[in-house]
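PROTEIN DESIGN WORKSHEET
SECTION A - STRUCTURE
LENGTH: 166
TOKENS:
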């Protein structure tokens, strides 16, 4: 279905009803402490480490055998504030091509300071990595296995000038 086929007004009214019912004026404390790690799949461990540690300067913090698949590597990158981005390689497992699915990952947004946003943008330029800038604060690009990534310079808890964490 094309966006032009959608009843945008009906979708807007539905969003407003959901917002009115569920969005609280003061946010209670979450039962979660944060995202321990988000795990993705790597086709090449060395290439993934070079991309995240060498290009984006997210330090590799650990690497060990994946408990679910002998011979598979599970490895982690520090993306700040105690958050980790993890990868598995799956040797011998046919994973096919990436496809968006309901409930699946669309992209991972990584918070950086405005200074690091400029610095990393220059590194993407130097590496010849194509990207798209949105709203002047978001850089969208693809990782070594096609994973969609975003570097966003808005402060944590904000999105394009809107406070999203109260």
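SECTION B - SEQUENCE
RESIDUE ASSIGNMENT:
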């Amino acid at each position: 279905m094309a966006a032009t086929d959608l009843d945008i007004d009906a979708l807007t009214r539905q969003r407003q009803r959901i917002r009115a019912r569920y969005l609280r004026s003061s946010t209670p404390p979450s039962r979660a402490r944060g995202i321990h790690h988000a795990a993705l799949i790597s086709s090449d461990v060395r290439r993934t480490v070079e991309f995240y540690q060498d290009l984006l300067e997210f330090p590799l913090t650990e690497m060990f055998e994946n408990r679910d698949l002998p011979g598979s590597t599970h490895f982690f990158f520090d993306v700040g504030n105690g958050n980790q981005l993890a990868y598995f390689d799956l040797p011998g497992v046919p994973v096919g091509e990436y496809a968006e699915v309901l409930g699946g990952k669309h992209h991972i947004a990584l918070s950086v300071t405005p200074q690091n946003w400029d610095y990393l943008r220059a590194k993407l330029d130097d590496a010849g990595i194509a990207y798209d800038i949105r709203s002047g604060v978001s850089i969208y690009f693809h990782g070594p296995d096609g994973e969609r990534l975003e570097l966003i310079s808005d402060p944590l808890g904000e999105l394009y000038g809107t406070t999203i964490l109260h």
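SECTION C - NOTES
Residues 76 and 86 are 4 Å apart (CA to CA).
The helical segments are 8-22, 45-55, 114-126.
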